[in-house]
Amino acid sequence: MSNNEQQGVILAAQNSPCPTASGGEGPASAGPWRPRRGRKPLAPADRREHPLFVRVNLAELAKLDQLRGTRTRGDALRSLALGQAAPVQVPEINVRVRAELARASSNLNQIAARLGAKRPVELDEIAKTLAQFRAALIGR
Predict the structure, then answer these.
(1) How many Å from the N-terminal Cα to the C-terminal Cα in the chain?
(2) How many CB atoms lie within 10 A of CB 129?
(3) What mean pLDDT is predicted for residues 18-44?
(4) Contact (CB, 8 A) for 76 and 64
(5) 39, 31 Cβ separation under 8 angstroms
(6) pLDDT computed for residue 29 by the predictor
(7) What count of Cα atoms within 13 Å lies in the side-chain half-sphere of residue 18?
(8) What count of other Cβ atoms lies within 10 Å of the Cβ of residue 23?
(9) Are the CB atoms for 64 and 57 separated by under 8 Å?
(10) 8 has a pLDDT exceeding 70
(11) Residue 108 pLDDT > 80, yes or no?
(12) Are 106 and 124 in contact (CB under 8 A)?
């Protein structure tokens, strides 16, 4: 009996799955099992698998680009063809304020993490960060 067969017999005797079958380390996998990353796969009914090709002239292309805003051409054509309303464009000021608020929130979260880990934090740093967070929240 080969070494692999012996290992399979031992694992079967212990009532545990073979490492290669369970996604563990072994020749059938690239390493230890990890959860799947990325977006969750779409349901078969929601997958867009059928391509359509459309030819337009230069004037039509310019009109489409004007109508689509920041969306892709495919998304704009799909929504126009299916009679769906265009998604609301977020004003640039909201994008900037949201980015500022995210930075201030991150700083505040880092201070909270340091306090939770019982690492020293200066009182002035807390006051300054809270002031930045408040200013970002108000939008000043």
Answers:
(1) 76
(2) 20
(3) 67
(4) yes
(5) no
(6) 53
(7) 13
(8) 15
(9) no
(10) no
(11) yes
(12) no
Question: Rounded to 5 degrees, what angle do the CA atoms 27, 29, 32 make?
Answer: 115
Give dist(CA 76, CA 59) in Å, integer.
16
Please, are residues 97 and 136 in contact by the beta-carbon 8 Å criterion? yes
Please state, in angstroms and rounded to a whole number, the distance separating the CA atoms of residues 22 and 39. Answer: 23
> What b-and-e string marks burial along 92-103, b requiring 16 or more CB atoms within 10 Å of the CB?
eeeeebeebbee
Q: Which amino acid is at 74?
A: G
Give the Cα separation of 45 and 40 in Å (integer): 14
Structural tokens at position 110:
């880092």
Q: At what angle do helices 73-81 and 58-68 cross, to 10 degrees?
A: 90
**Average pLDDT score, the chain:** 78
pLDDT of residue 61: 93
Question: Stretch 58-76: mean pLDDT, rounded?
Answer: 89
CA atoms within 13 A on the CB side of 109: 6
Residue at 92: amino acid letter = E
92 sits in the region (left: phi over 0; alpha: psi -120 to 50; else beta) called: alpha
**pTM of the predicted protein model:** 0.39
Separation between Cα atoms, residue 84 and residue 74, nearest integer Å: 13
